[in-house]
Amino acid sequence: MPLEKYWKKRKFSETQRGKPPREGTPEPKGKLKKSSGNMFVVQEHKASHLHWDFRLELDGVLKSWAIPKKPPKTRKIKRLAIATEDHPIEYGSWEGTIPEGHYGAGSVKIWDKGTFELIERTDNKIKFELKGKELEGIYELTRFKKVGKDKWLFFKV
Q1: For all residues of the chain together, what is the average pLDDT?
Q2: Three state DSSP letters for 123-146
């Protein structure tokens, strides 16, 4: 299940019979959907460390990478991008605060959002054209095998 890792890392609000509701994360629980769009979103995430979460709508989920530094708007700048768990499509419009004690605690706000056109996709490379307010043009994610399977480089072509 593509969203299983996402669900396992989070404690969502629950209502139990005869008990007060347990407060959970306000993040959307979401579900796997047939991918009907080509959305991308970049969320500024002020958690234990400030980073940017880059997400592409692929395979019915938002494929996700954490980028420790602001995504580049110009060529010749490469950023480390660490693959994280897939997120539900609903996460693409979510902003809010994840409470202390929950995975990813901190504020999440949309830094950029738009559409993308997929140019090439292999196991080690994803090339796409972004059409956002901050990020425009052809970008690439290339797996950085030397430092681990979840490490990628993100850059403007």
Answers
A1: 89
A2: CCEEEEEEEECCCEEEEEEEECHH
Distance CA 133, CA 27 (A): 24
Could you give the 3-state DSSP secondary structure of residue 32?
coil
Q: What is the DSSP string of 44-113?
A: EEESSSEEEEEEEEETTEEEEEEESSPPPSSBT-EEEEEEEEEE-GGGGG--EEEPTTSTT-EEEEEEEE
- For 95, the 3-state DSSP assignment is coil
At 135, is the secondary structure helix, strand, or coil? coil
89-98, 117-126, 140-149: which has the minimum mean pLDDT?
A: 140-149
Report whether 38 contacts 116 (CB < 8 A): yes
pLDDT of 21: 47
The radius of gyration of the chain's CA atoms, rounded to the nearest angstrom, is 16
| Closest by CA position to 103, among listed 5, 2, 3 | 5
Three-class SS of residue 29?
coil
At position 87, the amino acid (one-letter code) is H
Dist CA 144 CA 79 (whole Å):
11
